[in-house]
Amino acid sequence: MKNGLVISDSGPIFSLAIIDKLEILNGLFDGIYIPKAVWEELTRDKTAGHYQRIVEYFEDKVKEISGFNELTFVMDYGESESVILYKELNADYLLIDDKKARNIAENFGIQCIGTIGILSIARDKGLIGQLKPLFEMFIKNKRYYSLKLLNPILKRHDEEEIEIR
User: Does residue 73 register a pLDDT over 70?
Assistant: First the structure.
């Protein structure tokens, strides 16, 4: 059983693209969309190694918000359009990692999930194998997730924790 419709901000998409796991979104959700502002953020650097993966996966999943973006004074453009699109499409989840933006979205009653949560659920459902190699790829590629977040997830899945070096 899938979990409805998800709207995503750019951060989780960059992270999933770096570890080549965008396709797990298909296994977890009935649909995924991004607002135009997020598309612009994702496709800005055409030289990035993950650029083509992102374009191929998301080019037909871009939606324009119909309302006025009144949230740009409290969060960045992509995050604010993601919140608005979530409300306009009556989505089930907002995929977002930024702590400040996530707190604001949750204050609006939005159901948020982050990259690490997505990967943990995908692991539970057998869509991916071990998490530790993926988390290590995040660290190697400067995707900053706290070990205070990563290690309890690894422990929950009976995987070896990442040690600080």
Answer: no
Beta bridge partners of 62: 34
pLDDT tens, residue by residue, 76-112: 778 889 998 999 999 999 999 989 889 989 998 999 9
Torsion-angle region of 158 (φ positive above 0: left; ψ -120 to 50: alpha; else: beta): left
Q: pLDDT-derived band of residue 9, with 50, 70 and 90 as boundaries?
A: very high
Q: Are 75 and 56 in contact (CB under 8 A)?
A: no
Kindly give, in sequence order, each residue whose CB lies less than 8 Å from that of residue 43, ignoring residues fewer than 6 positions away.
51, 54, 55
Whether the CB-CB separation of 113 and 95 falls below 8 Å is answered with yes
CA distance 132 to 72: 36
User: Quick one: fold of 5-129?
Assistant: Rossmann fold (3.40.50)
Domain boundaries of the chain, sorted by first residue? 5-129
Cβ count near 142 (within 10 Å): 7
Which residues fall within 8 angstroms of residue 128, CB to CB, at 6 or more apart? 21, 24, 119, 122, 134
Q: What is the reported pTM?
A: 0.90
